[in-house]
C-alpha cells in the first residue's frame, strides 16, 4: 500500500548573538543548547539575514530573546537565538504555545519567545 504525502520541512536560520559565543565555548550554554551555524551580531534585532546559515526543521522556526544584563542591571540591549524548535535546545522546550503553533502549522518563522518563559526549570 502506498500513501501519497510529504513531511513538512522548514528552513530555519541558525544563529546566536555574538556575546553568546564565549559562554558557549566555556561550556555554560553548550549544556543546554546545540551550537548554531553562526555567532554574530547579525542575529540580533534588527535581523540581517545575509550570510546566516540555515538548518532543516520538521517543526517551527523559533526566535528566543533575552535581556542583556550586566552586574544585575538591564543594559537596554537584547540577545537573540534563532533556530529550529526541536533541535535548538538539548532538553526541549516546555512552552504550550510553541507546541500549539507546531501542531496546527499556524506559522513559519513567527514565534518569538523570551528565554525565561521556556528555560525556568533548567536553572542551576
Task: Please tell me about this protein's structure.
- With 124 residues, the protein is α/β, with parallel strands linked by helices.
- It has one domain.
- Helices cover 15% and strands 31% of the residues.
- The chain is built from 3 helices and 7 strands.
- It has a 5-stranded mixed beta sheet with strand order 3-2-6-5-7.
- The N and C termini lie far apart (51 Å).
- 24% of the residues are buried.
- Mean pLDDT is 77; it is low at 104-110 and 120-124.
H and E order: EEHEEEEHEH
Structural class, please?
Answer: alpha/beta
Number of strands: 7
Average predicted confidence as pLDDT = 77
Give the biggest beta sheet.
Answer: 5 strands, mixed
Provide the spatial order of strands within the biggest beta sheet: 3-2-6-5-7
Quaternary: single chain
Name the beta content range. Answer: 25-35%
Radius of gyration equals 15 Å
Number of helices: 3
Sum this structure up briefly.
This protein is of the alpha/beta class and 124 residues long. It is built from three helices and seven strands; from the N terminus they run E-E-H-E-E-E-E-H-E-H. Helix content is 15%, strand content 31%.
What's the topology here?
Layout: E1 10-13, E2 15-16, H1 20-25, E3 38-39, E4 54-57, E5 61-70, E6 73-84, H2 96-104, E7 111-114, H3 116-119
Parallel strand pairs: 2-3, 5-7
Antiparallel strand pairs: 1-4, 2-6, 5-6
